[in-house]
């Protein structure tokens, strides 16, 4: 059919074997090392993401052990930086546009006219991706972004509907299980014990270290919000 002639099988110079040309989206070993090195050496503000560098195995050329929120951070902020120097523009630009689409979609404030623009842009981006990747790449999950802009139009900003908080809470409940034959009883018993300890800790003196008065990890030694810092100055408004 003459589609993507550059990827057709070609005979070697001696005519004894055939070889499959590399696609424009494939990376060499050196390019993979650069790609994973960027992701491994990245630094985030405290609390923004987990330690993503532990999931990057540069020598093996693999990424595993990361959570769904880690994939969220990689897609929003890291992927477009990592691929810029190792892929040609015809591959990098559609992927950067895809990352930009999800980052704009997850903003805290989004205007209705921006949703219309995103809906048109994601259709163009997927068409560009179809010119790069094989048809087997485009499953139902790749088609899903077409409908995400309309979901924002119907349901509002994404952060009020995503499941990161619930997944984190379910992980906490999972850690309560000690008897795998009775997981419900283990969760109920541990939850009751935790709530009882928190209730009792509210009535202990301030000298006792509890969850309620424990110093935060990044304590800046400033008083709580609502209290003045420095000398107090009183003035009247006439």
Automatic annotation (TrEMBL):
InterPro entries: DUF4218
Pfam families: DUF4218 (PF13960)
Domain DUF4218: 105-218
Domain of life: Eukaryota
UniProt protein name: DUF4218 domain-containing protein
Organism annotation: Platanthera zijinensis
